[in-house]
Design a protein that fits this description.
By secondary structure, the protein is mostly helical. The protein is 57% helix and 7% strand. It is built from eleven helices and ten strands. It has a two-stranded antiparallel ribbon with strand order 1-2. It has a two-stranded antiparallel ribbon with strand order 3-4. Strands 5-6 form a two-stranded antiparallel sheet. Helix 4 runs antiparallel to helix 7.
Length: 368
């Protein structure tokens, strides 16, 4: 761990090799915008097909046309707004306080055993504003070699973005961004409004789709106009099937306070792994992401609770700093005593988060 973090033993690349790698990364970064441009093209065409081809050419009743256009533009604005927020909002970077200083990296490089490395890292962790509770499988504190940081709870390194992300859920190619603490609400809203948008377009276009489909090769209606109205419904229903399924999955994760990563690999603590550690009940889980104010729930505006570096646990035993239902150690040696002290500090922080969530829940219940 320490030797990798300090850079010892890593091969030195020549300047031409570094330049070639930089060019390759630049090309890869540009190529990653292709899925976003594809979605943008589909959305842009759907706007034209719905407004021009459907509403102004197919819909004859002026009142129906106005209602269609009004509802469509409300959904369109919320859909594009949440999509843009997901793309351009940084998912969340760890605070600089978690950056391992060069002095620490030098000391780690001088360590002769893993026990010395662990002791040095634990001493460093005690000076942090929040001692991380999540650990590696072997019980060590989680570190990131490329970023040279001590990972906060639920933080993971994204090899595509080449940075650590707070409460990382996954890297989404359709938004060319990581989905994490700072933009998870926007991502869920994007899925919700994308599903609603496609469903609305498909349902309001369905009657005209059936009419034009029955016409077959008739020349009563222009071929271009007929095909655009038909494909508008087909594309809308096709997308709603895929997006709604993904929305349902993330609602399931949201109400259980899990990330996509945690659904496949349960977080590990000093006392063992626990897949339900952060589950505070569906109401508090929802408020933790969407915030206490109902007025902001449906808007892609940041309102999440906390700072993304530490999270309250559902069941904590202060005497041992152990998650109930997890693995509780029987005896404590000097190493476990250090873990226990870290956990007591973390329990106090968790209680503070729980009080914050309780206050948020009480405030939310008072809002009409």
């Amino acid at each position: 761990m320490a030797r990798g973090a300090s850079g010892r033993g890593s091969p030195q690349r020549s300047a031409p090799v570094k330049a070639c790698i930089a060019v390759c990364w630049c090309i890869a970064d540009l190529c990653r915008w292709i899925p976003v441009l594809f979605i943008g093209a589909i959305v842009g065409w759907s706007y034209y097909a719905y407004v021009v081809e459907l509403c102004f050419h197919a819909v004859q009743d002026a009142l129906v046309r106005c209602v269609f256009l009004l509802c469509f533009h409300v959904l369109f604005v919320l859909f594009v707004w949440s999509y843009a927020a997901t793309i351009f909002t940084n998912a969340g970077l760890p605070s600089k306080k978690y950056q391992m200083p060069s002095e620490l990296l030098t000391e780690l490089g001088k360590c002769k055993s893993e026990a010395e490395e662990k002791l040095l890292m634990r001493k460093y962790a005690q000076r942090l504003p929040r001692a991380p509770a999540c650990r590696q499988e072997n019980g060590d504190l989680r570190t990131c070699k490329p970023c040279a940081i001590l990972k906060p709870d639920r933080c993971h390194h994204c090899s595509i973005c080449r940075q650590c992300v707070l409460k990382m859920d996954h890297h989404c190619p359709w938004v060319n961004n990581c989905v994490g603490y700072a933009n998870y609400k926007f991502f869920v809203l994007f899925l919700f409004y994308a599903s609603t948008y496609c469903l609305y377009v498909g349902l309001t276009d369905l009657n005209f789709f059936l009419q034009y489909w029955k016409l077959g090769g008739s020349e009563e209606v222009g071929m271009s106009h007929r095909l655009q109205v038909i494909f508008l419904a087909l594309v809308a229903f096709m997308f709603v099937l895929g997006v709604a399924g993904l929305l349902g999955y993330h609602i399931y994760l949201l109400l259980r306070n899990k990330s996509t990563i945690e659904s496949f690999r349960a977080p590990v603590f000093a006392t063992g792994s626990d897949g339900r550690a952060f589950n505070l009940g569906w109401r508090n889980n929802f408020i933790q992401v969407f915030g206490p104010s109902k007025l902001l729930w449906l808007l892609p505006v940041f309102s999440s609770v906390g700072d993304g570096h530490s999270f309250p646990c559902s069941q904590v035993e202060p005497e041992h700093g152990a998650l109930l239902g997890g693995f509780i150690s029987g005896s404590l040696d000097s190493t476990h005593e250090t873990d226990d002290e870290d956990y007591r500090n973390n329990v106090q922080l968790q209680n503070g988060h729980l009080n914050q969530l309780a206050a948020a829940s009480a405030f939310q219940s008072q809002i009409v």
